[in-house]
Design brief:
The structure holds two protein chains of two kinds. Chain A is mostly helical. Chain A is built from four helices and no strands. Chain A has two domains: 33 residues; 67 residues. Chain A is extended and about 60 Å long. In chain B, helix 3 packs antiparallel against helix 9, helix 4 runs antiparallel to helix 5 and helix 11 packs antiparallel against helix 12. Classes of the chains: A mainly alpha, B mainly alpha.
Chain lengths: 101, 232
């Protein structure tokens, strides 16, 4: 398996979407101005998306995932270090899965 | 438009970007390795994940799209997820317009491909300090692009060595990253409601398939748009 045709198509489409965002704002600035509401909307999209990914993980998970999320949040709150928070969280999940099967 | 007002775009500026961009190396390397491990857990090959990083070149969007990745892959879902996560780049790109005024299009649009959160922030500081060489983003992004693709490959190989992603919690890395991001968002009142609405709607809509992410993102972001604080 090197590069499957459907993966290639998906990656190229995502690349186009990504570049459209990078170049789009710059390009459109020649013709329109960003209203505060549009700006608030664009800023809120990634935040809402993070929530949308986390919510179902929390609801569909078990004790290992719940403790993992709690660890990530706690370590991030206390240290502010995202690397540490990920490592601690993944370690907790791995240990929980080891002992709970 | 007065073309003589175009900012400089020089090798010196390119090199300055490359050098000052080094401050971003640790975090980009860490995210690159993490993305490689996640891509391996999601069933992508080494070549596919390197191509992914090289073409999309955006950590958050790549990780979010992996979450929407199904076998076989749903093209519209992963593309819209990338679009949603990267839509904030439209704001970053828009802020470069006054600086890049008069710059030849190929220099502007190459720089925009190389723009990420990190080197955009560095470039804004350069600009505030009065340094106007427009090649800064191209130079920093160029070096970080190789780092990003290289660390993705390293992470993917490492992920394959780990074997079963479930056993070592590798499938949980994305959740852990995003939980950390959520903590940062939660500190600002204006960001709590979109986050909570995203959670609520996605949970409500959790059917099979990758669509719950987009429905949650759309609903949550609209909440953000309409709850925005009035300009002080």
């Amino acid at each position: 398996m090197l590069i499957r045709p459907d993966a290639l198509t998906a990656i190229l489409l995502m690349g186009l979407a990504s570049y459209a965002c990078r170049a789009g704002g710059f390009f459109l600035m020649r013709y329109v101005t960003v209203t505060p509401r549009v700006e608030a909307w664009l800023k809120a999209i990634p935040i809402a998306l993070v929530g949308a990914i986390l919510g179902p993980i929390a609801v569909n998970g078990g004790p290992a995932e719940w403790l993992g999320l709690a660890t990530a949040i706690l370590v991030m709150r206390t240290t502010g270090n995202d690397f540490l928070s990920v490592v601690a969280s993944v370690a907790v999940v791995a240990l929980m899965r080891l002992f709970l099967g | 438009m007065n073309l003589s007002a175009a900012p400089p775009f020089t090798w010196a500026g390119f090199r300055a970007g490359a050098v000052r961009g080094m401050i971003l190396v640790p975090s980009i390397a860490m995210y690159g390795i993490a993305f490689g491990i996640m891509a391996s857990a999601a069933g992508l090959s080494t070549a596919e994940s390197m191509l992914f990083s090289g073409v999309v070149f955006a950590g958050g969007a790549q990780m979010a799209s992996l979450q929407a990745w199904t076998e076989p892959v749903t093209f519209i879902a992963v593309t819209l997820t990338t679009l949603a996560m990267n839509s904030r780049y439209m704001l970053l790109g828009a802020t470069l317009r006054p600086w890049y005024r008069g710059l030849p299009a190929h220099q502007s649009y190459f720089s925009l491909f190389m723009m990420g959160d990190g080197n955009w922030a560095l470039a804004m500081r350069e600009h505030e300090d009065g340094r106007r060489d427009a090649a800064f983003i191209a130079g920093s992004g160029f070096v970080l692009w190789f780092l990003w693709v290289g660390t993705t490959a390293a992470g993917h190989v490492f992920g394959q060595l780990l074997g079963d992603p479930h056993r070592f919690g590798a499938d949980f890395m994305l959740a852990a990253f995003f939980a950390g991001m959520a903590v940062v968002f939660f500190r600002k009142a204006s960001q709590i409601w979109p986050l909570l609405a995203g959670i609520a709607v996605a949970v409500e809509k959790t059917v099979s398939g990758p669509w719950y992410i987009l429905v949650g993102a759309l609903a949550g972001s609209l909440v953000g748009a309409f709850r925005r604080a009035d300009p002080a």
